[in-house]
Amino acid sequence: MHYRAHIGKEAEELVAQKLIENGFTILERNYRKRHGEIDLIASKYQLLVFVEVKMRHHRYFDLSDVITPSKQRKIIATAKDYLMRKGGSEDRSYRFDVALLEGAEHSLELTYIPNAFNESDCAW
Predict the structure, then answer these.
(1) Phi/psi class of residue 106: alpha, beta or left (left: φ > 0; alpha: ψ in -120 to 50)?
(2) What is the DSSP string of 84-121?
(3) Which of 33-37, 54-58, 93-97 has the lowest mean pLDDT?
(4) What's the whole-model pTM score?
(5) Topology (CATH level 3) of domain 20-49+71-94+105-117
(6) Going by C-beta distance under 8 Å and a sequence separation of 6 or more, which residues neighbour residue 31?
(7) For the chain, which residues make up each domain, given as ranges?
(8) Which H helix or E strand runs over 48?
(9) What's the pLDDT at 29?
(10) Are strands 25-33 and 93-102 parallel, antiparallel or unpaired?
């Protein structure tokens, strides 16, 4: 496996474990459709969470800047596809979270941003 892909998988696994520790169930990992990809899809009670995971070793720029409006639109379109295929219900709410990891393997700093963006944030 390519080094970057390996690091990305480790970051996603760390975030998945944190979600599980907080009572979430992981429904999907790396959900891919023609619109794009969602790293993690999790649920807790009536909440469905679409999580984008970003990992960097060096702080050249703010990781939150990586989730551009274009990337947000792709995630939202992929989430809509998921809801259509998997049957989203009206009594279930959903949100888009971002997990930002920085540092080296044994000293990672996780910043978790619930409800980091929504459809109204993205100019269609």
Answers:
(1) alpha
(2) HHHT--TT-EEEEEEEEEES-TTS-EEEEEEEEE-GGG
(3) 54-58
(4) 0.87
(5) Trna Endonuclease; Chain: A, domain 1 (3.40.1350)
(6) 37, 38, 41, 78, 82
(7) 20-49+71-94+105-117
(8) strand 47-56
(9) 97
(10) unpaired
C-alpha 15/C-alpha 120 separation (Å) is 26
User: Hey, what amino acid is at 47?
Assistant: L
Cα(8)–Cα(62) distance, integer angstroms = 18
What pLDDT is recorded for position 120? Answer: 73
Tokens of 60: 């050249």
> What would the pLDDT profile of 40-70 be if each residue is shown by its tens digit?
999 999 999 999 998 877 665 565 567 888 9
| Whether the Cβ atoms of residue 34 and residue 84 lie closer than 8 Å to each other | no
CA distance 28 to 47: 14
> Can you tell me whether residue 63 is helix, strand or coil?
helix
Q: Which amino acid is at 80?
A: K
